[in-house]
Amino acid sequence: MNLRILPLCCLLAGAAWSSEIAKEDFESGMLGKPLWIGNPHVSVVEGQAVSGTKAARFHFTGKPDPNGDAWAELRFDLGKPYRDLWFAYSLYIPKNYTHRRGANNKFFRLWGTDYGDKEKIGASTWGNNPADGFSRLRCDWDATGGGMGEAGKGHPNFIAAADLGTWMRIMIHCEAATAEVKGTIQIWKNGTLIIDNPNQVALYKESGIHAYKQGYLLGAANSGFAEDTDFYIDDVVFGTTRADVDLPAHPPGGQALPSR
Ligand SMILES: [Ca+2]
């Protein structure tokens, strides 16, 4: 975005520009508060980036044991709860990515102020069925009263052969349930809506705060990986409207996005 036209855009877009919550390009080289509150096996490195030269590397340690798991997670705190939350980021899929077994790997989680929040939501990747080393994506919430689990619509081949060694732009919209209206989870990959669960998340609990303040990107990989497997995330943005976070998709090959 050219600064010279920003005032006109602000006039036209109104609250859209003022409702951005936080953004991160990792060029400071630091991961810390107030936005980032935990980063096990995540560090800022040079050499693989969309903006500038740096991005967050999620290092999943390889374990040849086929039952071995792995973990890398970047945890955030948005400062206050938001009932209607949009966020987006660029995700690099490593060239050696293989989804072993059918086990689920965390993709993201959102909750209020307590990880034990019964209104916690998220999504996970699962091995395709039949298994081919790639992954489908499906939402998670407590749909049955028995705890977090697969729920709502999913998307096959979310991570496929064409994604290896490229960046994909992820955009996520989550709106918490109220007593009257069920919640929403929508996920876009490179500008295409691939998961659409509008007003389907029946997850209103009397004790909940019905909004999202904390969460994490990626997380525990129950499938584990035979080799060290490094994902990268760059250009994260959180907001309260689509206009806050929406950017053009990465073209094939994952070239850099235009700047805002
Ligand atoms: Ca960057």
Describe the SSE topology:
Blueprint: H1 6-13, H2 15-18, E1 20-24, E2 36-38, E3 42-46, E4 54-60, E5 70-82, E6 84-93, E7 105-111, E8 121-127, E9 135-141, E10 149-159, E11 166-175, E12 183-189, E13 192-201, E14 212-221, E15 229-239, H3 242-245
Antiparallel strand pairs: 1-15, 2-5, 3-4, 4-15, 5-14, 6-11, 6-15, 7-8, 7-14, 8-9, 9-10, 11-12, 12-13
Residues 25-27, 49, 51-52, 54-55, 234 line the site of calcium ion.
Provide a brief overview of the structure:
By secondary structure, the chain is mostly beta strands. Helix content is 6%, strand content 47%.
Would you give an account of this structure?
With 260 residues, the chain is mostly beta strands. The protein has three helices and 15 strands. Strands 1, 3, 4, 6, 11, 12, 13 and 15 form an eight-stranded antiparallel β-sheet that branches. It has a seven-stranded antiparallel β-sheet with strand order 2-5-14-7-8-9-10, with no helix packed on it. Strand 8 and strand 9 form a beta hairpin. The longest helix has 8 residues. The chain is globular and about 45 Å long. The termini are close together. Calcium ion binds next to strand 4.
Top keywords for this entry?
47% strand, 3 helices, 7-stranded antiparallel β-sheet, mainly beta, 260 residues, Jelly Rolls, disordered N terminus, 6% helix, 8-stranded antiparallel β-sheet, binds calcium ion
